[in-house]
Amino acid sequence: MAEIEVLQAREYTVVKGNELIQKSRFELSLPEQKTIAYVCSMIKPVTAAENRGIPYQLDYQFDIRQYCKICGIDYDNGKNYADVKATLKKLRDKSFWMQLPDGSETVVAWLDRVTTDKRSGLATVRIDDRLVPYLFDLGQRFTKYQLKNILGMKSQFSVRFYEIAKSYEFKESIVFDLEELKHLLMVDDVPSYQNFKDFRKKVLEPAEREINDLSDINISFQPIKRGRKVVKIQLNITKKEIFEAWKAGVKTNQIIESGI
């Protein structure tokens, strides 16, 4: 894959339904989040006539070496094939509860099927069909961003917060109940995060730094107190000017290339 093709692939658009981002509780590692975003960036509109009568495509194939190069993984490292296999297996095995429009809930997996071939270096994945309403034909309730905006991030919370912030970007700010935010991030049971100072230091501040340095938006967190206790968090979001966003993209590419 030529260098220009790698840079172009990092510009691909990731699109997800707001319901998936804003209301679903899931815990994914950093490689798992980047892999899902990478798969989503491959989704392109298709017609039923093009796809055996089905107006969306669930099966995607990619070259593991190219995937590593796009995402900034040392693609000459002999462990990469095994690492990517392990990440895909975890995405196949992990599931989460998704609330349906009628109020009921269903268990959804990220991937329904995974196949890898060491001889060809190809991976083939099938998206769980229960994710169709949240990844295809989304109307107006969706969030989109370029893949490169998350590829330089080192904290799993940075990626999660970036997607949450992008989904509320049009509002410029959103207030979360502190305990609800922890619940959404699935850290409500982490003992050390019961202390707000630790939660801010280990979750909020790293996410704020990376998002502001490496993405197309700036964010800030404003604690809201009741008495002396922090009970809510206001997330402020501003879109960067074109030049500032370009500089962030350059920095991201430098970080990615230095990791290869």
Automatic annotation (TrEMBL):
GO terms for biological process: DNA replication initiation. Residues 13-166 form the Initiator Rep protein WH1 domain. It comes from uncultured prokaryote. Keywords: Plasmid. Pfam families: Rep3_C, Rep3_N. This is Initiator Rep protein WH1 domain-containing protein. The keyword Phosphoprotein does not apply. One of its GO terms (molecular function) is DNA-directed DNA polymerase activity. The keyword Ribonucleoprotein does not apply. SUPFAM superfamilies: Winged helix' DNA-binding domain.
